[in-house]
Amino acid sequence: MSNRSFRKFKDRLAYGLGVLCVVLAMFPLASILFEVVRNGLPAISVGLLTRPTGNITDPSSGIGNAIEGTLILIGMTCLIAVPIGLFAGIYLAEFGDNKFGRTIRFLNDVLAEFPSIVIGILAFSIVVVAIGHFSAMAGAVALSIIMLPIVTRTAEESIKLVPSSIRDAAMALGIRRWRTSLSIVLVTAKDGILTGIMLSIARIAGETAPLLLTVLGSGFFFSGVDQPIDALPLRIFTDYKNSNYPSALAQGWGAALVLVVLVLSLNLGVRFLTRGRSTFARARA
Amino acid sequence: MSSKDVVIRSTGISKSIFIISLVIVAAASGVAGYFVPVLLKQSSSVITINGAGSSFVFPLMSAINANYTASNPNVQVNYQSAGSGAGITDFSTRIVDFGATDAPLTGGSLGQRANITRDTGTPLTIPESIGAVAIAFNVKGVATGLKLNATVAAMIFQGNITQWNDPIIANMNSGVTLPSSTITVVHRSDSSGTSFIFSSWLNSSNAHYPWKLKVSKTPNWAGSTQATYLSLPQNVGVAGGVQQNPNTIGYVELNYVLSTTPQMYYASVLNGAGSAYVLPSLTTSTNAVNNSTASLPTGDGDWSKVTLLNAPGGSSYSIVSFTYVLVFKELSVVPGMTQAKAQAFVNYLWFLVHSGQDQATKLSFVALPFAVVTIDEATIRTITYNSATLHS
After folding, report:
1. Would you call A87 and B22 a contact, using CB atoms and an 8 Å cutoff?
2. How far apart (Å, rounded) are the C-alpha atoms in residues B140 and A98?
3. What's the pTM value of the predicted model, to 2 decimals?
């Protein structure tokens, strides 16, 4: 075997191993999507998507309350986490180049890696026990602690990407510092910030552990932010435990499909929307 | 370079404006957060009663509660399966209106809690359903007809017997061809009322072969080195572990065994009288309650001594126990309780032990026998709100 053909062989081998690794890496995703669609699609019906759970053993019961609960929890979480995360991100990007800023940045990264069950215990002890019962609010507090570091970090990174020439131009026109930050830098960086928010929503939509300790779950539609609420991940867990009943099994797969579609469409939506908007922003600039 | 520019350009004024705006946002969201629930609460007239606990009764409770709301649209009883242990904890800390548990309260589990005293919160125990534990198995060539007693089961589950064709099992099961395979014991990995009931029964084994792995919601499975174990969560996990692996034995709630597909195989168990081997069923479980000689205490009494295990009677199943709802006798100790909610709650409890029991049989649960309902009625009548009774 000549030296050249041996090198060719090595090249092919490395290429082949690379392809094999890609296939292996894609296999779990593909098999999850396949199984969820295969089992979930037959379960999906208008009734399943719109009716509350009520009696889990009744074939006509649905997951409407879980879908509603997940959407409400996402909304409440955004109300808490987005303003705080956004302002924290602005601070870190614009004023954070000092010891305090570096400390905050480090702590923020630590928080982002925190196990979500620990955050659930925190929300349990400071909200559930303090109020005296499980509530949607407690769940939103737990989820916002998970969402906050992601929003903060992506906001900071997006704002840092804004070219300093734009800030200089604003400065040259005599625009005040705070006005520059809010009306010019923030607007320019909004695509990145929006992406961060949507990705963090995709992250919290599937969280189960913190919800187990805070929102309890419910068989009924929303009845107040101070009352227990249902969510898709909780519904799937309860349905799994009762999967000896065909109705619960169908609900579980249906809820899994809805959750996967929700998270996937958030991820795909981010790509689609930001692509459109950035061209728009560029055309305007 | 740009980050250096930022430091140079930042001035005291813009920083303070930034901090002020931050404070304003924080204050605004605080105020909004305070008013949103107040506004929403005023608009809703629906009474929500929350309970948590035993996973075993969850399907039955969800059916009963949906039925109750159908006839009482302004009352929603929300029960969630958090597990018996969580049910007791959440009830004791009063973050739910009622708890449900397969293992009764013991003096200790309440006495240890400083926030519960007999003065402010007498807990009431209301038996609301009956659980039976089936011994499920998957042995090649053995479909039905496996017979066991507490002693042999204890020996299997703690590893004194490790082969299916052990002479002790073979003697009890003449006519059944047992393979020479190692027994794999499937048990619950989570804290479970089912483990508590089953280990209580194993503890009634012969004195020569005592049960050594504790009577507990979490028996000390690690204490046995001989047995081959498979540890899985929930009834669904143990049932799947038995069905998917050959030469296994495990314990699963009868309700789960009866309602699952494909069909599971389960053992006959020697009755309390020692006269016959009895298959678990709704009928033989009801027989156990009706024939039980256990004297049942009042609702505020100690139910930890009550046992339905090894009840007398030729056709009584041996591994049977109550599952309970826990409520406070004086409902005003529960945060957020009102006169209207307390009244709705007591009406619901009355429904739970009467018409609610109609749901039991079709979901493969054991309906409460009449004698137990009578005790529950007396208990529910003692519930008060601000010292006034709610059900006469």
Report:
1. yes
2. 71
3. 0.84
